[in-house]
Amino acid sequence: MVWNCFSCIGGHQKSRKSVKENLDYPWEIYTLKELLQATNNFSNDNKIGEGGFGSVYWGRTSKGVGIAVKRLKAMTAKAEMEFAVEVEILARVRHENLLGLRGFYAGGDERLIVYDYMPNHSLLSHLHGQLADQCLLDWQRRVSIAIGAAKGLSYLHHEARPHIIHRDIKASNVLLDSDFEAKVADFGFAKLIPDGVSHLTTRVKGTLGYLAPEYAMWGKVAESCDVYSFGILLLEIVSGRKPLEKLPNGTKRDIVQWVTPYVQREDFDDIGDPRLEQKFNLEELKCVVSIALRCSDGNAESRPSMKEVVAWLKDGLRNKKKEMGDVKNNEEQDEDQDEDQDQEETYKNHKDYEELEKQDSDDGT
Questions:
Q1: Domains in the chain and their CATH numbers?
Q2: Sequence-distant (≥ 6) Cβ neighbours of residue 184 within 8 angstroms
Q3: Which percentage of the chain shows pLDDT scores above 70?
Q4: Helix (H, G, I), strand (E, B), or coil: what is residue 306?
Q5: Which residue, 104, 254, 263, 283, has most beta carbons within 10 Å?
Q6: Could you tell me which SUPFAM superfamilies the record lists for this protein (predicted)?
Q7: Are 182 and 123 in contact (CB under 8 A)?
């Protein structure tokens, strides 16, 4: 296990050279001095993000390479475990739509993870944050981001060995490179799923608004939980709305409850983010919303796999050659007859978020 390796490195302060000679590491073992210099001693001016885990800083190495450094806030057992999980998983995976690990430092009370720097920040910053007013995400960029994030998640579920459940898919964990290509990030809550195991029961982690009902209520986690979260993310990308919003009467409404009446009335024009000023392909928007609602079905067994989602997005949005029913092999009912019933069922399954707020879950923002 990777944790055994880097805890040993931190404890004995081995040099980078000796480590690289003895073990075939695919990453760098940085020194604390290097990272202090790169980030200007973790200056507030270099801080680009902050969450429950700690802070993220921008930096530049002595070779002129831009990096992002995650610095854990405190050396608790929980923080150390999340550090270990993230480094191990990042060391296992290589995909164009997953954030790359450049290296780490583990020594004393410091735990630092070094990533590729993403100059266009997070999807969250463009939808709801400091870049939202600039409206840099036109429709085609949103489509590309959706497909990229889906491909990264599909890789974790279907190609990585063992399979990986992310458990915290949300807008702040989708980063954007210089070309606005999506990179799924932050694997601190991820779970490795051995072959032959369909699901695990575990303490709930993640962010309200994105949590699948069966996971939020009973801690039952499977790949389908990530699919649910991705469905919420799709609706967020299309509409520019937050996953949960507080109404004037103080109650909470999730994004599926918000979108369902528009779908039932076929008012798809009103679903698109107003900042797009109607500059989107209406048929593509219908396709994305339909995929999102299938992903966020309240019944876990009714959700598609991420491999199917990638196919739907590619074929439905880019080629327009196939209907989603042609992709999904086990489609058993006529979609025209059951569409209204499916949407009503989806709406009913999303009325329990006030109850979910009472659960002991961690917000990963």
A1: 2-116 (3.30.200.20), 123-356 (1.10.510.10)
A2: 97, 98, 99, 149, 152, 153, 156, 166, 169, 173, 174
A3: 77
A4: helix
A5: 104
A6: Protein kinase-like (PK-like)
A7: yes
Residue 200 has pLDDT above 80, yes or no: no
Is 70 known as a binding-site position? yes
Compute, in degrees rounded to 10, the torsion defined by CA atoms 93, 89, 142, 276. -160
Residue 122, SS3 per DSSP = strand
Find the mean pLDDT for residues 273-286: 96
186 annotated binding-site participant: yes
Quickly state the pLDDT bin for 264 (edges 50, 70, 90). very high
Residue tagged active-site, from 168, 226, 254, 297 = 168
Reference 312, options 295, 296, 298; nearest CA is: 295
pTM exceeding 0.85? no
Based on the residue annotation, tell me whether 168 is a catalytic residue of this protein.
yes
Q: Tens digits of per-residue pLDDT, 74-105?
A: 777 877 887 888 888 888 888 999 998 899 99
CA distance 132 to 102: 29
| Cα separation, 143 vs 237, whole angstroms | 9
Are 231 and 296 a contacting pair, CB within 8 Å?
Answer: yes
Where does the pLDDT of residue 291 fall: very low under 50, low under 70, confident under 90, or very high at 90 and above?
Answer: very high
In angstroms, the CA 129 to CA 122 distance is 9
- pLDDT at res. 15: 38
Examine the pLDDT at 322 and tell me if it is beyond 90. Answer: no
Name the residue type at position 161.
R
Instruction: Tell me which residue has tokens 């164009």.
Output: 96
Give the other-Cβ count within 10 Å of 76's Cβ: 10
Supply the DSSP string of 245-292, one letter for each residue: EE-TTS-EEEHHHHHHHHHHHT-GGGTS-GGGTT-S-HHHHHHHHHHH
The Cα–Cα gap between 240 and 246 comes to 16
Is 56 within 8 Å of 50 (Cβ atoms)? Answer: yes
Residue 360 annotated as binding?
no
> Alpha helix locations (H) across the chain?
2-12, 16-22, 32-38, 77-92, 123-127, 139-154, 213-218, 223-239, 255-265, 282-295, 306-313, 324-327, 335-348, 353-356
Q: Are 226 and 214 in contact (CB under 8 A)?
A: no
> Would you give the DSSP letter of residue 98?
B
